[in-house]
Amino acid sequence: MDRTELADFLRRRREALRPDDVGMPPGQRRRTAGLRREEVATLSGMSTDYYTRLEQRRGPRPSEQMLAAIARGLRLSLDERDHLFRLAGHTAPSRVSRTDHVSPPLMRVLDRLHDTPAQVMSNLGETLVQNRPAQALLGDETGHSGPARSAAYRWFTDPAEQRVYPLADRGRHGRFLVASLRAASASDARATELARLLVAKSAEFAKLWEAHEVAVPVERRKTIVHPSLGEIALDCQVLFTDDLAQVLLVFTATPGTEDAEKLQLLSVVGPELL
Questions:
Q1: Alpha-carbon distance 161 to 166, whole Å?
Q2: Sequence-ordered list of residues with C-beta below 8 angstroms from that of 115, at least 6 positions apart, any chain
Q3: β-strands 127-130, 118-122 pairing
Q4: Under DSSP, is residue 193 helix (H, G, I), strand (E, B) or coil?
């Protein structure tokens, strides 16, 4: 671990960011070039003290999970992320087998969506980052580990996962999840391994997997069953990265409807309403 170079790199990347780069108001009397340390810490989901010690060449070597969070908080490119890992004495993650680095362009869009549910997902159905309204709508989907990080895995192994959709919509959504995993398996060995695991665990998945569907369209219109507000009819807009490895989902409701009122309530109250 090169503490001096790591501290210098973090400081320079922090100073290169502006508040509007991450969806923050500029504020007044900002004496620090770029973002403040506490702002980067918040964006990275860690304490200000922990992040400060890294910039001051103190503290323990950060774990790979911490480095991934810092890379996301600082909106690093893949090359910058890899450099960060090496400075901290870790091997840079494989760009094929790791998808927890959120695309900076998608993050820039997400940063500007404060009152609209939005989240970034990988081609394996892993929720990589959510804004606060998305957590209020769907719950925190980023805290899972292992195979359960994948929405497809949870859908076919945890009956509670399906309650977020009306009964009439569950069959189509299950087909969509399987088709998406099938498409990902053509270029990602992790998708194939996840499918093998699910075939052994779920007869429903095995039957759908055998159908070899890859062209089930993205669900542009969804009905979400919220535990406190009931059914909410939403439009789902999608924005893919060029390599189709990640997608930004944005949920909106028709203005003037009861669904729009529920969505507005979620953006104000937040996850506490769950």
A1: 12
A2: 133, 264, 267
A3: antiparallel
A4: helix
Residue 121, beta-bridge partner list? 127, 247
Is residue 28's pLDDT more than 70? Answer: no
- The residue written with tokens 């991450």 in the block is 22
Structure tokens at 81: 């992320």
Q: Which of 41, 103, 43 is nearest to 78 (CA)?
A: 103
Q: What are the C-alpha distances in Å from 89 to residues 3, 70, 84, 99?
A: 10, 15, 9, 20
Span 66-107, pLDDT tens digits: 898 898 888 888 778 888 998 999 988 766 544 567 888 888
Q: Which two tokens stand for residue 269?
A: 């109250």
Measure the CA–CA gap between 264 and 252, rounded to whole angstroms. 10
pLDDT at 36 over 50: yes
Tokens 């980052």 belong to 129
CB < 8 Å & 24+ apart, contacts of 52-55: 54/6, 54/7, 54/10, 55/7, 55/10, 55/11, 55/14
C-beta atoms surrounding 166 within 10 Å = 14
CA 26 from centre of chain:
25
Please report, for residues 44, 55, 105, 111, 190, the alpha-carbon distance to residue 10 in angstroms, rounded to integers and kept in the order given. Answer: 12, 6, 20, 20, 31
Please name every residue paired with 222 in a beta bridge, in sequence order, or none if there are none: 234
* Pair of tokens at residue 181: 């995993």
* Predicted TM-score of the model (pTM): 0.68
- Round to whole Å and give the CA distance between 98 and 108: 21
Nearest by Cα to 109 from 253, 249, 270: 249
